[in-house]
Amino acid sequence: MSFYDNRYYYINKTLLSVIGQWPFQSRLEGNVMLVITLFFLGSLTVLELWGLIAGIKNLSIIMENASPLLINSLIFIKLINCLYNKDKMKDLLEHIEKTWKTTQIGPETEILLNYAEQSKTLIIKYISILYMLGGLYTTIPVIVSRLYSLLPTNETYSARFLYRLEHVLDVDKYFNLLMLHAFIGVFFLISVWAAADGMFILCTYHVCALFEGIRYNMERIRGSDFVAVEPNIADDEAYHIIIGCIKSYKRALTLVLVASLNVEMHVV
């Protein structure tokens, strides 16, 4: 079983795997999921752009189609950033795994566990909000359409879609097919968003855990009687703690440098 199958990081692994960006998944699986993601993101964007171009003289159409296109553009930037920095992401994850495996059981492990738990909790809350908003956004046309079908009226109601497309396509005729496509497309849109930001959250909390571990060890030295006139390095506990702090600092600095390459894109 992979280290990242544990309960702290399994969500990050799943989200990145869905969009084909988990660095440790097989090439075949990654490519297949990436193609599926690109297909639905691309086709959704093409339909929105088609409606916008065809109705470019209508201000209402411009307003209703430009907004989702802007969001799609931001999601594409996040996905391109993930593709470009996939190798760096792998190095970062390997650093995190190495930290867990080399940290001795004790207070430092408790610090890692505490921050990992906080990271998992925040990610769950964050992606839950994203998926709920996405679900609400996609289900509104279905709910409205069903309500109108139940109302006792002789008026003909034209189904209102997520974006303006009725001037180029018979939305009433293809409503169910378009809604199915929209559900899947929005799912992948949110998955890219959640996966990228979830990875950023994971790295941020892990770096905080490393610096908290350094603080703990420095306080151990300050509050203990490790001082010796001519210490034997092999038995000098203070020396080994300081060396450990230096290694932890270098590891944290490496993670910060790698993570900083993704900050601007991930927080878009």
From TrEMBL:
<dbReference type="Pfam" id="PF02949">
    <property type="entry name" value="7tm_6"/>
</dbReference>
<dbReference type="GO" id="GO:0007165">
    <property type="term" value="P:signal transduction"/>
</dbReference>
<keyword id="KW-1133">Transmembrane helix</keyword>
<keyword id="KW-0812">Transmembrane</keyword>
<feature type="transmembrane region" description="Helical">
    <location>
        <begin position="174"/>
        <end position="196"/>
    </location>
</feature>
<dbReference type="GO" id="GO:0005549">
    <property type="term" value="F:odorant binding"/>
</dbReference>
<protein>
    <recommendedName>
        <fullName>Odorant receptor</fullName>
    </recommendedName>
</protein>
<dbReference type="InterPro" id="IPR004117">
    <property type="entry name" value="7tm6_olfct_rcpt"/>
</dbReference>
<keyword id="KW-1003">Cell membrane</keyword>
<feature type="transmembrane region" description="Helical">
    <location>
        <begin position="129"/>
        <end position="148"/>
    </location>
</feature>
<feature type="transmembrane region" description="Helical">
    <location>
        <begin position="65"/>
        <end position="84"/>
    </location>
</feature>
<dbReference type="GO" id="GO:0005886">
    <property type="term" value="C:plasma membrane"/>
</dbReference>
<keyword id="KW-0552">Olfaction</keyword>
<keyword id="KW-0807">Transducer</keyword>
<keyword id="KW-0716">Sensory transduction</keyword>
<feature type="transmembrane region" description="Helical">
    <location>
        <begin position="32"/>
        <end position="53"/>
    </location>
</feature>
<dbReference type="GO" id="GO:0004984">
    <property type="term" value="F:olfactory receptor activity"/>
</dbReference>
<keyword id="KW-0472">Membrane</keyword>
<keyword id="KW-0675">Receptor</keyword>
